[in-house]
Amino acid sequence: MDIGNWSHVTEFIILGFPHLKGVQTYLFFLLLVIYLTTILGNLLIFLVVHLDAQLHTPMYQFVSILSFLELGYTAATIPKMLANLLSEKKTISFSGCLLQIYFFHSLGATECYLLTAMAYDRYLAICRPLHYPTLMTPSLCTKIIVGCWLGGLAGPVAEIFLVSHLPFCGPNHIQHIFCDFPPVLSLACTDTSINVLVDFVINSCKILATFLLILSSYVQIICTVLEIPSAAGKRKAFSTCASHLTVVFIFYGSILFMYVRLKKSYSLDYDRALAVVYSVITPFLNPFIYSLRNKEIKEAMRRQVKRTRLLG
């Protein structure tokens, strides 16, 4: 077929949850509450870490950057999801769709790298405590954070370039809750085997490599902690890792099943549910995980509240 005779798609229609049309208003308010809580919670942690001098350590610098990252990560998809829940015309332009994919994947990749850096930080703190201050210096911490951002922002460029050169002639209904590579590729009017392969290779390297690095860090951490003679020492060592491990398993548990697979066909409802976990639930839970399970952050919050009252 002559590509020149095909009509060119200029916008997509995001179907979201078509089986839940009767409760979309309730879903809107539920998602709005979750989104506002996510913004306030992550913003609170980011500000507390930067305002409290006692939290100016590499571990909490990584936590604050993760909280800041979640603000952009959720902003890439949730506002459009909220608008689509109330709108009859759930459209997004072709360029807007590519931008949404780019920012969602670049910030998601940055989160993978940042979680890996946090695992490495815990490895140095627990397995090499005497050398930790000289190894994880503020300068190195800053370089790692910058590297995570640069690596993440550069990550999806090749995939976006390939998708932008595909012909789309209709239909234009995206069977997902936001623009993403798999559902968009399924709408292309040509063979997308190369795109699927490139997507699989990049995601495998990015997701599997970082996940394996995190696991290797924690294997060595567990081995070191088990050698600590006192039960109190073991609890203290594990408590510094509990929050990070919880976030890792929730985040990676969903994205591994979603993106590390070499096929175009997939269960739509299954993928929508997974997308809710890593795009909505994980950023929502992070502030609670890091604040409710972390004594230092809770104490820092109390200090900031007392300081605010004194100034008031």
TrEMBL record:
Sorted UniProt keywords: Cell membrane, Disulfide bond, G-protein coupled receptor, Glycoprotein, Membrane, Olfaction, Receptor, Sensory transduction, Transducer, Transmembrane, Transmembrane helix
Major subcellular location class: membrane
GO molecular function, one term: G protein-coupled receptor activity
Transmembrane segments: 26-48, 60-79, 99-120, 140-163, 207-226, 238-260, 272-292
InterPro entries listed in its UniProt record: GPCR_Rhodpsn, GPCR_Rhodpsn_7TM, Olfact_rcpt, Olfactory_GPCR1
Pfam family, one: 7tm_4
Compartments, as annotated in UniProt: Cell membrane
Keyword Nuclease found: no
Residue span(s) of domain G-protein coupled receptors family 1 profile: 41-290
Bilayer topology term: Multi-pass membrane protein
GO CC entries: plasma membrane
Family of the protein in this entry: Belongs to the G-protein coupled receptor 1 family.
Matches recorded under PANTHER family: G-PROTEIN COUPLED RECEPTOR, OLFACTORY RECEPTOR
Protein name: Olfactory receptor
Organism of provenance: Heterocephalus glaber
Organismal lineage: Eukaryota, Metazoa, Chordata, Craniata, Vertebrata
